[in-house]
Amino acid sequence: PLVLGIESSCDETGIGIVRGTDLLTNTVSSSMEEHVRFGGVIPEIASRAHLDAMVPALQAALAEAGVTLADLDAIAVTSGPGLSGALMVGVSAAKALALATGKPLYAINHLVAHVGVGVLDGGALPENLGALLVSGGHTEILRVADLTSDVELLGSTIDDAAGEAYDKVARILGLGYPGGPAIDRLAREGNPKAIRFPRGLTQPKYMGTAEAPGPHRYDWSFSGLKTAVARCVEQYEAAGQDLPVADIAASFQEAVVDVITAKAVLACTEHGITNLLLGGGVAANSRLRALTEERCSAAGIKLRVPPISLCTDNGAMVAALGAQVVMAGGEPSGIGFGTDPSLPVTSIHVAAAGA
Ligand code: ATP
Ligand code: MG
Ligand code: FE
Predict the structure, then answer these.
(1) In angstroms, what is the C-alpha Rg of the chain?
(2) How far apart are CA 251 and CA 254, in angstroms?
């Protein structure tokens, strides 16, 4: 099916068009620069930027794909999770389009779309699939029994998301916003073993054993790590010493990536998961990509990592999951649905009210 996807959950206005598992176009316009001076995304500014960007992005995407609205088989839109006002712009646009064209509309979960985008890079997803979702708002390890109907949460962060930790640490180190790409770059010049930062929730009382799992065997915690970096910086400042910024960045990154990959691979091996998809904005991180590859290969897990342009927020991922739902015979969502800023990952697409 030919499906148009609309993404507006944070600061990217994304329009993607796919035919089945083939990507036709992926137009992304970001309001990132408008948030830089505030050091984080300002919801009101993001919403206004979506409003400005939405129709031009739609027109550009249709032109680039060489299709018209009449050609579409369905429209898909992110209805959550994300910023409420930002989501409303995309959902309103999608409802208007659906009403005007009479095309079926599918309300899609942004997090599952970060996984579903995998079909655009290598076709249908394999069986025995797990997904490691590492993004600005989430860090989760999932068992994907069926992408369109059965996703199970095996573990997640109990406080900050990994991307959030990158952004906060970047701010502590004075690297500006967004922090992920800046730390990624700087870490290449530093020594990842310079400072041993904590790996959260790895003590035996949290881990337990395979037979008797502890309360957080597959969970992560990154707030202690962020505090440890802040303490470290304070110590250098108190001593009047120059801050070894690259070493701190590399050591911080190593702590994040080490514990993420170790627990993800553990969850997979203990659940008989033999295929893993890495997704979400932090999947753009070079060290995370490399260590996940290394540890999956050692554990006999086949890894799929979409290209970076499909890992960061975009409309193609929404269209891709929408197309999968259409192909699986999923019910359209009608036009009565609302946005859900905290939609759980197990809610893959929103059924029509009353259905
Ligand atoms: P969610 O998907 O949980 O709703 P989001 O959509 O805001 O959150 P994404 O756009 O998927 O998040 O990811 C953005 C995050 O990815 C930011 O925290 C950013 O710092 C981080 N990020 C982007 N590139 C890199 C990189 N190379 N290394 C580390 N982090 C990165
Ligand atoms: Mg973003
Ligand atoms: Fe995202």
Answers:
(1) 20
(2) 5
| Omega within 30 of 0 (cis) for the link into 56 | no
> Which amino acid, 132?
L
DSSP state for residue 281 in the 8-state scheme: G
User: For ligand 1, is residue 10 a contact (CB within 6 Å)?
Assistant: yes
* Positive/negative CA dihedral, 37, 40, 45, 50: positive
Which are the contacts of 241, defined by CB distance < 8 A and separation ≥ 6? none
Whole-model pTM: value is: 0.95
Given the CA of residue 12, which atom of ligand 1 is nearest to it? Answer: 10
DSSP conformation letters of 178-195: SHHHHHHHHHTTS-TTSS
Pick from 119, 57, 151: nearest CA to 321: 119
d(CA 40, CA 28) in angstroms, rounded, equals: 19
**3-class DSSP state for residue 341?**
coil
**110 carries a ligand binding annotation:** yes
pLDDT band at 154 (very low <50, low <70, confident <90, very high): very high
Share of the chain above pLDDT 90, in %: 94
166 C-alpha vs ligand 1 centroid, how far in Å? 9
Mean pLDDT of 290-316: 97
Residue 321 makes CB contacts below 8 A (sequence gap 6+) with: 5, 76, 108, 109, 112, 113, 115, 116, 117, 147, 148, 348, 349
The residue whose CA has the least distance to atom 3 of ligand 1 is 137
